[in-house]
Amino acid sequence: xxxxxxxxxxxxxxxxxxxxxxxxxxxxxxxxxxxxxxxxxxxxxxxxxxxxxxxxxxxxxxxxxxxxxxxxxxxxxxxxxxxxxxxxxxxxxxxxxxxxxxxxxxxxxxxxxxxxxxxxxxxxxxxxxxxxxxxx
Length: 136
Fold this sequence. Notes:
Elements: E1 4-10, E2 15-18, E3 24-37, E4 43-53, H1 54-63, E5 69-82, E6 88-100
Parallel strand pairs: 4-6
Antiparallel strand pairs: 1-3, 1-5, 2-3, 3-4, 5-6
């Protein structure tokens, strides 16, 4: 079984491209902190490339920015291509099948906030960032 789940931060804004047929493909790198310290007492990190296809890739590219915390699940893929010097290059990347990112603390509604237009005093539900537009 080939399943990988990672949580970490975006190294940079995701790159959104389109195939010749018009299908969206987003690519980026997630930095994942290891869960143990090295001999100097520091946590090390792994930088793992990933790609996401179609609407999922479009949503990720629109909402994930450099430094954002998010999670991905997918499969590890190995592919080979020839670079400009004619040498074969082997690449490992995660092909995303699902993703999630929590509401950032500064965007989370306060417990005392009221639903707009309801006037019943109920607290707002926390809505994942992907369900609404990213603030500009």
